[in-house]
Request: fold
Amino acid sequence: MSWLTEFVRPKIRTLLGRREVPENLWVQCPACQQMMFHTELEKALRVCTHCGHHMRVTAQQRLAWTFDGGVFTRIELPKAPADPLRFRDSKRYPDRLREAREKTQLDDAVLVAHGAIGGRRAVVAVMAFEFIGGSMGAAVGEGIVAAARLAVLQDAPLVVFTASGGARMQEGAISLMQMPRTVIASRLVKEAGLPFVTVLTDPTTGGVTASFTMLGDIQIAEPGAEIGFAGARVIEQTVREKLPEGFQRAEYLLAHGILDMVVRRGEMNATLGRLIGLLRVKETEAA
Amino acid sequence: MRHFLDFEKPIAELEGKIEELRRMSEADGINIADEVARLTDKADRQLRATYARLTPWQKAQVARHPDRPKAGDYLRALITEFTPLAGDRAFADDAAVLGGIGRFRGRSVVVLGTEKGSDTDSRVAHNFGMARPEGYRKARRLIELAGRFGLPVLSFVDTSGAFPGIEAEARGQAEAIARSIEACLEAPVPVVATIIGEGGSGGAIALAAGDAVLMLEHAIYSVISPEGCAAILWKDQAQAPAAAEALKLTAEDLKRLRLIDGVIGEPLGGAHRDPAMAMDAVGEAVQTALSPLLGLDGTSLVARRREKFLAMGRDALA
Ligand SMILES: [Zn+2]
Reply:
């Protein structure tokens, strides 16, 4: 398999240079409208220092915050079919892809890396909401499958941070087929006796939620994350009722038994490290 | 009363004329056989021409045709000793998902189907074929039952999608769908899924992650409805025909993309014109798909099924 050979020469992109931002730049919290210094916000992992609102973060930032000491090795992911349907709406799909790539410096909406969490080896896949809304097409599916195979190969747990607006409509039914494909990925990890942990971040909706995300041995969410299958607007139009307070938020799902826990960003690395340590009895004893 | 789709209007007019002539001839004893034959031939040719080049949007109309045979019709036509089984053992029985055991050509099978209903009352009773978590959990339970007793699973999918409701979300719609997909993929028995009408997104694939996925000629299978896609990408629901075209949701397109395994031809003018013939064709196709799977053990079936899904889309890799 061609992507396996990539492990031999992994691309090291640990701690890519942060974009230059003037230190005195102010940022407004979308939840409480309070202002914060950009640097202050970054130090707080983009969690509002006034109200605790968890702002969306880029996949690259997420990787740095998840691994011990911000050290990780990204792997090159298999290429996905380019515009298999020759899809065109107001824009051609290849143009949308090119624009997203230029804007984000990412190939598609998932990054995969390995490193240590709590001193133990771990593979982490992070979905990038900034890339076409984190929509799941063949590249994301391939990324999740590749992450699962890497976890099995390294005898390491797989942690997936999800963030998705739903399907990559421009890939039609190929996008739909990523649901069974990523479910298979979760099976590969579980069958190898490895923990499969999903961390749901804002927003996690549609086919991504209704496939591998809901098959975690442990399911965690960030505070306030929007999580669901159907979109809130679609539900409102269908049932013609006002949606309950906090509907489809992480805390609502926790209360309804769908998540194990809601964990603040600043505690994510420690929580993941503890969970992995508790679940991996064999490795713990050997260490 | 017969329902005619917009693009069937010229055919409907011809058929109306033929009807009228027949009535006149009965009443007046005039011999109009030649004229009837001429018009029948013309209607036939028109029907053939129309259905030979249906646009994807027209296919979506045919797939949703109110007279098209529904999952329950297939169960009645193809399954003997059908014994419905109810409930998810946790909350409720979901009438949008039919499920049970019965015999298909003499062989014990587990049967699943999403049922849209065929009149106002039954449509409401079956929630228009939109399943709630209980439906997918019932499906999963029955697929696991099939695995325990070595029974093949046959599913008949016809749904616009999973039900988008407050309670459905609260009870874990996403988890229920994920587990149902997993159950299909992990079943140590043959799973043959047939998209008989509408294959709407996650709500459809929950019952269709099988060894063989068949589609009727005019059925559609898509990650989103043409209307939904048009509303999001075109910001205009009226662009649904363009979205239907772009989504490549027809059986022919999906076969070409190797996302489904077979296309089942429909009677001239669509399954709604001759339901018995359509259901017969589906029975034949299911039997043909099932036969080679019967000799395989559970481990090989699961491995093959995984390989099939993992390979999807790879052909087109750069
Ligand atoms: Zn705030």
User: Anything to note?
Assistant: The first strand of chain B starts at residue 79 and ends at 84. Residues A 29, 31-32, 34, 48, 50-51, 53 surround zinc ion (CB under 6 Å).
